[in-house]
Design brief:
This protein is mainly α. The protein is built from 20 helices and no strands. α3 packs parallel to α6, α14 packs parallel to α16 and α15 runs antiparallel to α16. 46% of the residues are buried.
Length: 507
């Protein structure tokens, strides 16, 4: 598929709006799962670590499947994937209302909803990057705030719905709201060049007509009979032979000719079709080999290799607060009357502010986006270390706001990835990075929950979380520093479309 130059506007702003609402609708409930987490603890009576798997799977399984999601978006396009994923998210939420135990929720809420969210996230990020170049940071910042605004609204909405209709009614209503994703997905028009070639045929359509043996066999017989009948009339007029003699001769010739030709043609076409299938299988195998070769090349990029370690450690340590902060407050014996706003809502609204602010900063030429991303990692690690010292609602609210703002670095992560590997490899590279992010999301909350079940307090858990995030930040900083100096020295020699991250990391 041939894409024209990103317009940096026009229909691209429609893409931004529908991508915003798509992330708002699909990620609102999974990110605000901390409200449901408390209800599931009381309903099923399981341990904190075991129950935390529901929310961690919902937020992690889609990222774990990012390579598959990337292949789906590349193969089918953002619009079909978004519409199909809308059905998955809505269906998973509605099925969760009938969950008889925590294991059912692992499937309905964790895997089905999580996989749908992963497909939608990949689709929205990919199509936005196609429509924007110079304003890519702003566009990604805007669409990524959708999930944060969803977290802010759904935290209060789900709590209100639970009070009015119970946990099951809440999930049914939230699932029905998610069906609006279908309308958003229908507006994700692909950015194709007007003079681009027609869509490539499917494998079945690519088979030449001569390979359809049975169809041609019938057609050949009919054509031969028609030709012979025509020849019969011409021969009769030319030679003026008696009819009964000519009929006898022609019938013998037709039978012998058709039998011999059918056998030879059938054998020949079977051989040709077999060879075609072998070539098709060989071509598909070569595509898989090329995929793994490109993956190896990506990991030779120093910045890219450091990014996958940093995102893994960041999600192991940085994701649990959004899921467990409400339970942290309850474990600290903070009076619910002191709550002016749910802590999850504070995280959500500040994440939206952080995504938008960091996305705007990424568009300034004087801002080094990789250093900006590293700074957010280091500050997040320090904030996590401070959580065990927070013993009041006010201090927890401040830390929740800081963590929410710094978690907004998700908006610049696709920007950093694009600058590192280029727009041509964005889908491939981003899918790999999101796989490790999903692994961190899936492991982080259960690990923190297990620490609590083991020690009966959250202090050790958040010390561990802070250490993981700080380690990832320092590793990324060390990997980037020498490359950045090489990039500065060679920037004047680079072609206009060459990305500085890529050159630096390969030096």
């Amino acid at each position: 598929m041939v894409f024209r130059k990103p317009p940096d506007g026009g229909w691209g702003w429609v893409i931004v709006v529908v991508s915003f609402f798509t992330q708002f609708l699909c990620y609102g409930s999974p990110l605000a799962v901390g409200v449901l987490y408390l209800e599931w603890l009381d309903a099923f009576g399981e341990g904190k670590g075991k129950t935390a798997w529901v929310g961690s799977l919902a937020n992690g399984i889609g990222l774990l499947a990012s390579p598959v999601c990337s292949i789906c978006v590349s193969s089918f396009g953002a619009r079909p994937v978004a519409i199909f994923s809308g059905f998955m998210v809505a269906g998973g939420l509605m099925m969760s209302s009938f969950a008889p135990n925590i294991y059912f929720l692992y499937i309905s809420y964790g895997i089905v909803v999580g996989l749908g969210c992963g497909l939608l996230y990949t689709a929205t990020v990919t199509i936005t990057c196609h429509y924007f170049d110079k304003r890519r940071g702003l566009a990604l910042g805007l669409i990524s705030t959708g999930s944060s605004v969803g977290l802010f609204i759904y935290a209060a909405l789900q709590r209100e719905l639970i009070d009015l209709y119970g946990l099951d009614g809440c999930l049914l209503i939230v699932g029905a709201l998610s069906l609006n994703i279908l309308a958003c997905g229908s507006l994700m028009r692909p950015l194709e060049s007007p003079d681009s070639p027609p869509p490539e045929k499917t494998c079945v359509d690519k088979v030449p007509d001569q390979y359809f043996v049975y169809h041609e066999k019938e057609k050949t017989v009919e054509e031969n009979i028609s030709i012979l009948e025509k020849g019969y009339v011409d021969e009769k007029c030319a030679n003026n032979m008696p009819d009964y003699k000519q009929d006898s001769i022609l019938n013998k010739n037709v039978l012998s000719s058709i039998n011999v030709n059918e056998k030879d043609t059938y054998k020949k076409k079977v051989v040709e079709q077999t060879n075609f299938c072998k070539q098709l299988a060989k071509r598909k195998w070569q595509l898989y080999l090329n995929y793994w070769e490109e993956t190896v090349v990506l990991f030779k990029n120093k910045v890219f290799s450091a990014l996958f370690v940093a995102i893994l450690l960041f999600d192991i340590g940085g994701f649990p607060p959004s899921l467990l902060m409400e339970d942290v407050a309850r474990s600290a014996n903070i009076n619910e009357d002191d709550y002016h706003m749910p802590l999850i809502s504070i995280i959500g609204i500040m994440t939206a502010v952080g995504k938008l602010t960091l996305g705007i900063l990424a568009d300034f030429k004087w801002v080094n986006t990789l250093y900006l991303y590293v700074t957010t990692l280091l500050m997040t690690g320090v904030a996590l270390f401070a959580i065990p010292f927070a013993k009041s609602y006010l201090t927890l609210a401040v830390l929740s706001g800081i963590l929410g703002f710094l978690t907004g670095n998700w908006s610049i992560f696709p920007y950093v990835t694009t600058k590192t590997v280029g727009i041509e490899k964005l889908t491939h590279a981003y899918g790999i990075l999101m796989f490790f992010a999903g692994l961190g999301n899936s492991l982080g909350p259960p690990i923190v929950g297990w620490f609590y079940d083991w020690t009966q307090e959250y202090d050790t858990a958040f010390y561990f979380s802070g250490f993981c995030v700080l380690l990832g930040g320092f590793l990324l900083l060390l990997a980037a520093l020498p490359c950045w100096n090489a990039c500065t020295n060679q920037s004047s020699k680079l072609p206009p479309n060459t990305y500085s991250y890529k050159v630096a990391s390969s030096a």
